[in-house]
Amino acid sequence: MRYFIELSYNGKNYHGWQIQPDAISVQEKINSAISTVLQKEILVVGAGRTDTGVHAEQMFAHFDVDKKLDDQYIYKFNSILPEDIVISDLQVVADDKHARFDALSRTYEYRIWLGRNPFLLDGTWQLYHQKLSISNMNKAASILLVYENFQSFSKVRTEVKTFNCIVTNAEWRQEGSLLVFHISANRFLRNMVRAIVGTLIDVGSGAISVEDFRTIILSKNRSNAGLSVPAKGLFLTAIKYEE
After folding, report:
1. pTM surpassing 0.85?
2. Of 42, 69, 81, 122, which is the most exposed, with the fewest CB atoms less than 10 Å away?
3. 122 in catalytic set
């Protein structure tokens, strides 16, 4: 039987989602906890791969096991998992349902605190003494919906068949000192959101213009884009599937 789990995690203590040698990952912790409870080696498949230090408010993964599981197993899994990883739901699904390939869209938020706040150090990038034009940043962000090739915002050394992504939403919203970038797409490239945010900050500060942002996209050259902003402000917030 195939099961989907819904989970969230604080990425501060992990080298991303995916298992890797000599580094602690979220996937490794999930595999270990579920395998311990079910007394069988379980390998979960995630809906995506967040980078080192990136958080997830909503992540999905699937695994297979020849056993009927009820909601009590959510408690059992969480009793073994570290407190910064939490499983919130467990559902049996069709045998061919895939957490990664069946996802229709993913949404990320990048959170910036305009000022200093000692209680938000782990979940925001804090900017002080810098004035930003949110209007220009939103004008530039809207350009992302026009294009599909985002090689300019991808890590240079990455194995992908295409740099194409369909962005369906990209906008900045400000509430007091909290400035949040919202972006949704069918898929994302490695480091894409953090590179986009860094480049949009350049637009907001006046270092580059809105049209310069368009030119950067068309160049398909990562060296023309801005710096990659810190991982701690990035959150995977939603993954959508067909009902």
Report:
1. yes
2. 122
3. no
